[in-house]
Design a protein that fits this description.
35% of the residues lie in helices and 13% in strands. By secondary structure, the protein is of the alpha/beta class. The protein folds into two domains: 17-51, no CATH class; 97-384, Aldolase class I (TIM Barrel). It has an eight-stranded parallel beta barrel with strand order 1-2-4-7-8-9-10-11. The model is unreliable at 1-16, 18-25 and 29-83 (pLDDT under 50).
């Protein structure tokens, strides 16, 4: 029986001439190295490209590969003293200044850089674009001051704070498209807890009598008619705007005035006006980019009961302090004419009315209970529901 012819096995490569094999390999190598120039990769779909190892430059994830997640950083917005607001604004977002007050004691106990930067982002995420932070109170600074050292013999208030806390605050706020306004709490008034109280008494810097603007604490007014006192405040403010040239504004409040019930019934209006004009002029010469703001009672009450004729002071912005519910309507009328209104967290029932009032350009919030984080969180929930 004749055997059947065996079918060849394998590819038959042994039957192909060596020269042909070498030609094939060489052509393949040339095509690989010239794949971009020849446009081969463009003929393939994205999925096909990913399936071909030598075309796809990015390896696909495998159980043994190390995965490094991409973290989106917080948006940084370069600003030049202008508020930048995102698209799809709510009625609250459309307010030019949405500010919250932070006490000067917020940075005691050595608040770290990370803590301060996170705090800024916390308030940004809750809809604020301005932090009004205390830097002064009871006649001492919450930063190291050469003027304090030379005039009073110590550099700052007796509190624990990092030297660069305000630099970190300003830097992070500007990165987040926010502003920082320096809050000069208590203005020209002190109480018995002030570190300069005894010195002020001995130097006769105090206006005779007790200022009973607020019954909870008796205050004493530093007499700015005394040249030494006036120069001290002027030098403090000039030093501040030079020490922190990127600060957006400074703000003083209703403690910048004399209570009408002080003994003597002396009209100190013109003297206070002269003092403020000189102080503001000096500040503007030192740093013209900084805004000088006042948050006070309406101009009638300010002048009548505090000798504060601030319409003559040449301030940049006037915010009406409307913490008293009994006179709220009257204060609101003035707030519409000036730069905005300041309320406390006890008045959040007013928020929708204020947010929807197009005549109110700016809204400032003072955490009366001393809990700014809770105040910010609560306000955020309220503003989210406003149509």
């Amino acid at each position: 029986m004749s055997r059947k012819k065996q079918q060849p096995s394998g590819c038959g490569c042994l039957n192909i001439p060596v020269s042909v094999i070498l030609l094939f390999l060489g052509s393949g190598y040339w095509l690989f190295t010239q794949r971009d120039n020849l446009g081969i990769i463009k003929l393939l779909s994205n999925n096909q490209q990913q399936d071909i190892p030598f075309i796809s430059p990015t390896p696909t994830d495998s159980p043994t590969s190390t995965f490094i997640p991409t973290v989106s950083p917080s948006p940084t917005i370069e600003t030049t003293n202008k508020q930048i607001t995102p698209p799809n604004q709510t009625a609250w977002d459309k307010k030019q200044i949405r500010g919250i007050y932070l006490s000067r004691y917020q940075i005691t106990n050595n608040a770290s850089e990370n803590m301060i930067r996170e705090r800024v982002r916390y308030y940004r995420d809750r809809g604020f674009n301005t932090i009004i932070h205390g830097v002064w109170g009871n006649a001492c600074t919450m930063y190291k001051s050469e003027v304090m050292q030379q005039t009073l013999g110590f550099k700052s208030c007796p509190n624990l704070f990092e030297d660069k806390w305000l630099d970190w605050l300003i830097d992070e706020a500007h990165k987040q498209g926010m502003e920082v306004h320096a809050y000069f709490e208590k203005g020209i008034k002190i109480d018995k807890n002030s570190p300069i109280f005894d010195l002020a008494i001995s130097r006769k810097w105090i206006v005779p009598g007790v200022d009973k603007t607020y019954t909870e604490i008796y205050h004493y007014v530093l007499d700015v008619e005394i040249p030494e006192v006036a120069d001290f405040f002027k030098e403090i403010l000039v030093e501040f705007v030079q020490k922190y040239p990127k600060i957006d504004a400074v703000q003083w409040d209703d403690y910048l005035g004399y209570h009408a019930d002080l003994p003597g019934k002396v009209n100190r209006t013109s003297q206070l006006t002269n003092f403020l004009q000189n102080m503001i002029n000096a500040m503007k010469q030192a740093n013209p980019s900084v805004s000088f703001d006042i948050c006070h009672h309406n101009p009638y009450w300010a002048k009548q009961y505090f000798a504060a004729d601030y319409q003559q002071w040449k301030v940049d912005r006037i915010f009406i302090q409307a913490y008293n519910e009994s006179g709220f309507t009257e204060e609101l009328n003035y707030a519409q004419k000036y730069n905005g209104i300041a309320i406390t967290n006890k008045q959040f029932h007013r928020i929708e009315e204020l947010v929807n009032n197009q005549e109110i350009k700016n809204i400032l919030v003072f955490p009366l209970d001393g809990k700014p984080e809770e105040t910010a969180s609560k306000l955020h929930k309220i503003t989210q529901d406003i149509k």
